[in-house]
Specification:
Number of strands: 0
Number of helices: 8
Strand content: under 5%
């Protein structure tokens, strides 16, 4: 059933994301053409068109980011906490599957839009020779990191990607938990959701700070000082991943508990 819910969710949200992604990629390609014409022919009009397209490109990226946030919030709120909730909770599926279908689809689109933005910017800024130069420099940079710091470049990239993906899931779950808590109120649920978001952030920061200060000396003296740079890097990445997974899991079960036991659709 989770697969069917996820398929439905992706199909529903693709109607919003795909046109925006198409516009973003089309703008990047068109801007690249006019930029090349401007450089090769020194035509002023091409430069003006390229500058205008660059502005529209940036505005489209901003719109895509805002749309991603709005759709993530709206799909969860309307489907599970709004009028559609009456229908969704009559389906023979668990609250876990309902939350997971929204979560996985939202995280997928956030990651896809982020990759599209990065690739579009790289496509605009880099020329043909730059790609070959980058391909030549990356192995050299990897060897330099290994010789100077004892760290493999691939481990930094892999760790960063893992942390980003886990962070995306964590942030989405933070919104879900905030909306779930805010929905417990009978009045001004939007303001209560905002207050819950602020309160959860403050509580998480206090917990993180307390744990970090308490264990900082132990981590420094007993763990990091006796490890290689590569090992210390993965300890740091592992700690960040553990933090994001633990907090995300707690937020998931908080949302699940509200939807299962305290849901108020009135």
């Amino acid at each position: 059933m989770l697969g069917k819910l996820l398929k439905y969710e992706i199909r529903a949200t693709s109607r919003i994301y795909l046109p925006l992604l198409g516009v973003l990629l089309a703008l990047a390609g068109t801007d690249k053409v006019f930029l090349s014409v401007s450089k090769q022919s020194h035509a002023a009009w091409a430069g003006y068109v390229s500058a205008a397209l660059s502005v529209v490109f940036v505005l489209t990226m901003i719109a895509l980011s805002i749309a991603s946030l709005i759709v993530t919030i709206q799909r969860f709120y309307r489907s599970l906490l709004g009028d559609e909730g009456y229908l969704m909770f009559t389906l023979p599926v668990s609250a876990d599957h309902l939350i997971l279908s929204k979560l996985i689809a939202a995280a997928m689109w956030v990651i896809v839009t982020g990759l599209a933005a990065v690739c579009s910017i790289a496509f605009l800024l880099m020329k043909g020779n730059d790609w070959s130069e980058l391909a030549r420099m990356l192995p050299q940079l990897n060897d330099l990191l290994w010789s100077q710091a004892g760290i493999r470049g691939w481990s930094i990239v892999a760790g960063a990607l893992l942390a980003i993906v886990a962070g995306v899931f964590y942030e989405i779950l933070l919104f879900y938990a905030s909306m779930s808590l805010g929905h417990l109120s009978n009045k001004r649920r939007f303001l209560c959701s905002v207050g819950s978001f602020i309160g959860l952030n403050v509580a998480i920061q206090l917990i993180t700070t307390a744990l970090g200060v308490e264990n900082l000396d132990y981590i420094k003296n007993r763990i990091l000082e006796n490890m290689t740079a590569q090992g210390a890097l993965w300890v740091g990445i592992g700690a960040l991943l553990l933090y994001e997974i633990a907090m995300g899991t707690a937020l998931f079960f908080l949302s699940r508990g509200v939807l299962r036991n305290r849901l108020n659709l009135q």
